[in-house]
Amino acid sequence: MTTGLLRTGGRIYAILFCIFMLAPMIVVLGASFTGEGYISFPPPSLSLRWYQEVYHNDTFMRALRYSLEIASITAAASGALGVAAAVVLVNRDIPGRGLLVTLATMPLTLPHIVLSIALLQLFGQFAVPTAPYALLAGHILITAPYVLRLTMSSLGGLDPRLQLASYTLGASYAQTLMRVVLPLGMRGITAGLLFAFLLSFDEVTISLFTALPGAQTLPAEIFNYASQGADPIIASASGIMIIISALGVVAIELSFGLLRMIAGEERPRRS
Amino acid sequence: MAEAVSLRVDWPRLVLYSAMLAPLFIILLFFFVVPLGIVAGNSLTGTGVDAAFPSVSQYTSILTDSYYLGILWRTVVVGLAATLGALVLGYPAALVLFFFQGRWRQVFLFVIISPLFISVIVRTYGWMVLLGPGGLPSLLPSEIRPRLIKTEFAIMVGLAHIYIPYMVLSINSAMSRIDARYLRAAATLRASNYQIFRDIILPLSAPGVVAGCAIVFSLSMTSFSTPILLGGSGNKTMPYLIYQQNLVVGDWATGSALAIVLLAVTMSVLVTLTLLSRRVMTRVGG
C-alpha cells in the first residue's frame, strides 16, 4: 500500500538530508588530507602535510592556544556565575524567580553583532583595551545562561526532602550545598561547563570585534584566512576545530546526553 | 510540596541568596544593559559639529540613503530566502523524525543536531569549498558551469544549512505534542494518509513552523561571517555595514543607528509574518 511507499520515501529523504547536513564537514575534513598545494575534494593524494603546516604555523598555533585559554576561562567563570545563581533560583519560593531567569537569559536573544558593537563602544568609551576583557565578557554573557538552565534543569527534579533531611541531621547550608545539592546536579553542571567551553571555542563574531589584530582566536583567524582565499591550511585548521568539537560532543553525550540537552529528549537509560 | 510559609524574614538566607545571585546580575548590568544604553545613546548623536542631542538625524540619513536601503533590502531578501529554504528542506525532515521510531530516530536526530556544535566558520568554509570552482560546479561540463560562490544564492544556501537544525527542532517539538490518539482515531475512521497530514499534522505543527521561521530569520538577518565569506564584497549585508562603520571607520553614531535599524527591521518582519500566519491559520481552522 501507499504507507509502505511513504516509509521508503521517508527513509530515502532521511539519508539525503543527513548527507546535506554533514556535507560541509566531510568536504573540509577530506580536503584537509590533501597532498596537493590547492583545495580539492576528493583529494587526489592523501597526506598529513597540511596538518604539519598548521603545526608549524605560528599564527594558527598562537590562535589555537588563545582560543583554548579564552574558552577555559569562559567556562570557569560562566560555571561559577551560572551555578551560584542556579542553586538559588531553583527554589520555588524565591520572589520574582521567573523574571530573574528571563533577565539572565536575555543576552541569548540579542544578535552577536549587536552585542559585539555594544561591548566595543563600552570599552572604547572608557578607553579600556577590548582584549581580553570585552572578549571574555561577551563570551560569559552568551554562555552563562546555558549553565544556569542546565544546572536548574538537573536540580529541578531534586527531591526537596533530601535537603530537609540534611538540615534535620544538623548540616549547615554550605554543607548541604556542597555535599547534597551540587553532587546531585553534577551531570547538568558538567554539561553546562562543556557546552560553555565549546560555544566560546566556536564563537567567531564577538572575537572578530574584540580581539586585537595580532592576537585572534582560532575561528577569527580562520575567517581572516578564508576571506583572502582557499589555502588548504584553512581546511586543516578547520579540521582541528572539528576534532575538538567532536571530543566535546562525546563528553556531553557521556555526561548528560546530547539529545536531552538540545532536543529535550531522554536517551534510553542503560540499566 | 507546599511547605509552611513563614512570614518571618530569614536574614541569613536572604543575604546568602543575594550574594550568590549578585555576580551574574552585576555582570549583566555592566556588560549588557549599560553597553546597550550606550549604543542607543550614540545612535541619537546629531550629525555635524553643533548638532543637538538627542537627534534622529542618523536614522533619517540612513533611511534616505539609497546605498544603505539597497543593502538593507538585500539583507531582508536573503534572510527570507534562507528561511524559506530551511522550511522547505526542514519540514519533511521533521515529519520523518515524527514517524521514525527507536534507534534510527536517535541517529537521525543526532546528525541534525551535531553540526550545531561545530563552529559556524567551519560550516561556512565547507560551503566555500563546495560551491567554489573546484566543488560542485566542477561536476558539470565547463560550458554550462555556473558561478555559485560570491553570489546571493551562496549566502542563502549557507545560512539555510547553518540554521536548519533550529527549524527542524522547533517543528519537531510542536509535532511531538500532537496527541497520538488523534492519529489513531483518524486511522480508525479510515482517513487517508494525506487527510491525516492535512487535517491533523499540518495545523498542529504550524506553531512550530512559525517559531522555527522566526528563529532562522532573525539569525540569518544578523549573521556576520557567513554572508561575507559566501557573498563576497559585491553582496554586502547589514552586519558588514555595522562592522565597517564601527571598526573600520570608527563612526559610532552611524554604526549604532545601523544596528538599531537592523534590529527594528528584523522585529517588524517577524511581527508581520506572525500576524499573517495567524490569519492564515484561523482561516484554515487550525
Automatic annotation (TrEMBL), chain A:
Q: Where are the transmembrane segments?
A: 12-33, 70-91, 98-124, 130-148, 188-213, 233-259
UniProt superkingdom: Bacteria
Q: Look up and give the membrane topology term.
A: Multi-pass membrane protein
Q: Which Pfam families match?
A: BPD_transp_1
Q: Which PROSITE patterns match?
A: ABC_TM1
The Gene Ontology CC terms held by the record are:
plasma membrane
Q: Name one GO biological process term.
A: transmembrane transport
Alphabetically list the UniProt keywords: Cell inner membrane, Cell membrane, Membrane, Transmembrane, Transmembrane helix, Transport
Where is this gene product found? Cell inner membrane; Cell membrane
Q: Ranges for the ABC transmembrane type-1 domain? A: 64-253
The answer to whether UniProt assigns keyword Cell membrane to this entry is yes
Gene3D superfamilies reported in the protein's UniProt record: MetI-like
Q: Which family does it belong to?
A: Belongs to the binding-protein-dependent transport system permease family.
Q: What is the name of this protein? A: Putative spermidine/putrescine transport system permease protein
Taxonomic classification:
Bacteria, Pseudomonadati, Pseudomonadota, Alphaproteobacteria, Hyphomicrobiales
Automatic annotation (TrEMBL), chain B:
Main subcellular localisation: membrane
Q: Pfam families, from UniProt?
A: BPD_transp_1
**TM annotation in the entry:** 14-38, 71-100, 107-133, 153-175, 196-219, 257-276
Fetch the Gene3D superfamilies from UniProt.
Answer: MetI-like (1.10.3720.10)
> Which keywords does this Swiss-Prot/TrEMBL entry list?
Cell membrane, Membrane, Transmembrane, Transmembrane helix, Transport
Indicate where this protein resides in the cell.
Cell membrane
Its GO CC terms are: plasma membrane
Q: How does it sit in the membrane?
A: Multi-pass membrane protein
> Is Transmembrane among this UniProt entry's keywords?
yes
Superkingdom of the organism of origin: Bacteria
Nucleus among keywords: no
Write out the similarity annotation.
Answer: Belongs to the binding-protein-dependent transport system permease family. CysTW subfamily.
Q: What is this protein called?
A: Putative spermidine/putrescine transport system permease protein
